[in-house]
Amino acid sequence: MEESLCRRVSEHKQKSTHGFTAKFSVTRLVYYEKNRDVHAAMAGEKQIRGWRLSKKIAGTMRPGAIWAKNGSACAEKMAAHGRSDARGFTYEKRLPMKALIRRLVEAHGPSGREDEVRDIVLDELQGSAAQVEISPLGSVHAIVNKGGATRVMLAAHMDEIGVIVSHVDERGFARFHPIGWVDVNTCLGHRVHFANGATAVIGVENRWDRKKPPGLQELFLDFGVDSARRCPVKVGDTGSFDRPFAEIGDRLVAKSMDDRIGVAILLETLRRLSSTPNEVQFVFTVQEEVGVRGARTSAFGLDPHVGIAVDITDTGDTPRAHKMPVRLGKGPAIKVRDKGMIADPRLVDLMVRRARAAHIPYQLEVMELGGTDAAAIQLTRAGVPSGALSIPCRYAHTPSEMVDLRDVENAVELLLALLRRAIRLD
Ligand SMILES: [Zn+2]
Q1: How far is ligand 1, taken at its centre, from the CA of residue 180, in Å?
Q2: In angstroms, rounded to a whole number, what is the distance separating the alpha carbons of residues 419 and 269?
Q3: In the beta sheet, which residues pair with residue 365?
Q4: Which residues of the chain have pLDDT under 50?
Q5: Helix, strand, coil percentages, rounded to 5, for the chain
Q6: Which of 404, 418, 419 is nearest to 101 (CA)?
Q7: Are strands 131-134 and 140-144 parallel, antiparallel or unpaired?
Q8: Is 422 within 8 Å of 149 (Cβ atoms)?
């Protein structure tokens, strides 16, 4: 356990500390875990120590785990301090898709506070051929093949739904407003996590004598304290729902699959896109859940010819669900319409043709409610023909959003099939 990772790595590299690194001439940091809480860190270290070597190698993907890479913040800090050649000790292994999804969904990023997610995205973009910039609002733009004939903007949003503290009473209970659409039915008993490490349970007034579901204004945050002075948050602090990542068969479950799954798909597509005649603008947007704000300004700045959002969609495959043919595991859904947008039919046709030609399963989506970044892109400047590729997702906007890994992989394949050839909408 160490407070300064850079110093610890430097000591091991210079063999100024005794132990296995000196004994076996180990010079590379492969893996580390970040912990906010010293007791949790101690417990985690003790647990790992007890594992067999094979388990250590296979099972180190835990919350907070980070595979150290070239150009990581720590490596740069080391280089700046002249302690070591940054190439010397970092490790270039890129996170495999499932581990990347896990890292993304466990990051904290309610709308307007996407910093943690942005850091992961920037980290994953290190070493790619893309030209990377950050918009004034905080969205990340990664441009591939700048100057290509057709400018194609792909958008996935980094933010997630959450809560913002609006009042703290004298006993330390806090009231909150929702960030984005928060379903009151999923709040009770759930936990909320804040960027400073604080955790709260959501409680409700008059729990046993109510006949109808409470309104959000009847809920409160309980931080386990008994005075306002001890309350670890203040008015304006934002929290996200607290749920770890879980794998159930082929399905992945977590909070904020909406839309970290889109972020992971864009990163993987960028990584595997070896060549394209188009200028592809991979855009990781901010503030989608509060009104597609980041996509609007990025689309204005990037001036694309075609826009595609990659986001989640509802399904109709659970008991007594509404009538919607989209099912988990049957392929990514090509959006035809949602509440915010009618997709350009030429783009819908093109996506269908490319999916068929490459034998990639797909579904067609008409969603009654909801919208995506594509709605903002479409109405930018003089108008941009737009569409969306959706990942079927059960229990959207709850702390247990469920997607199917096969849909995720097929979405990457479909985007690659689309982008590898020229995109023209005639
Ligand atoms: Zn979304």
Answers
A1: 10
A2: 9
A3: 335
A4: 61-65, 67, 69-93
A5: 30, 25, 45
A6: 404
A7: antiparallel
A8: yes
Domains of the chain: 5-97 (no CATH), 109-160+255-419 (3.40.630.10), 162-241 (2.40.30.40)
What separation in Å is there between the alpha carbon of 288 and the centre of ligand 1? 7
Is residue 288 among the annotated active site residues?
yes
Query: Which secondary-structure segment (H or E) carries 140?
Result: strand 140-144
Distance CA 220, CA 303 (A): 44
Question: What is the sign, positive or negative, of the torsion defined by CA atoms of 66, 69, 73, 78?
Answer: positive
From ligand 1's centre to the CA of 311, what distance in Å? Answer: 5
Entry pTM: 0.79
Strands (E), 213-305: 219-222, 238-241, 246-248, 251-254, 279-285
**Of 111, 108, 129, 225, which Cα lies nearest the Cα of 168?**
225
Q: Residue 236 has what DSSP assignment?
A: T
Distance between CA 322 and CA 356 in Å, rounded?
Answer: 28
Of 318, 323, 349, nearest in space to 336 by CA: 349
| 311-356: pLDDT as tens digits | 999 999 999 998 999 999 999 999 999 999 999 999 999 999 999 9
Side chain identity at 193, as an amino acid letter? H
Kindly give the distance from the C-alpha atom of residue 75 to the centroid of ligand 1, in angstroms, as a whole number. Answer: 33
Q: Determine the distance from the C-alpha atom of residue 229 to the mean position of all C-alpha atoms in its chain, rounded to a whole number.
A: 34
User: In Å, what is the CA distance from 397 to each residue of 89, 219, 312, 365?
Assistant: 41, 18, 10, 18
Question: Are 375 and 300 within 8 A, CB to CB?
Answer: no
Angle, in degrees to the nearest 10, between helices 97-105 and 115-125 = 160
CB 121 within 8 A of CB 267: yes
The strand pair at 151-157 and 306-313 is best described as parallel
The pLDDT tens digits for 219-253 are 999 999 999 999 999 999 999 999 889 999 889 99
Q: Which residue has the tokens 């030609």?
A: 357
The two tokens of residue 129 are 């051929």
Please pick, among 279, 288, 289, 365, the residue that the annotation labels catalytic. 288
Q: Which residues have their alpha-adjacent CB atom under 5 A from ion ligand 1? A: 258-259, 311
Please give the distance, rounded to the nearest whole angstrom, from the Cα atom of residue 373 to the centre of ligand 1: 8
Bond before 344 cis per omega within 30 degrees: no
Q: Determine the distance separating the centroid of ligand 1 and the alpha carbon of 256, expressed in angstroms.
A: 8
At 63 the pLDDT is 44
Say which residues have a Cβ less than 8 Å from residue 347's Cβ, sequence separation at least 6. 306, 308, 385, 386, 387, 425
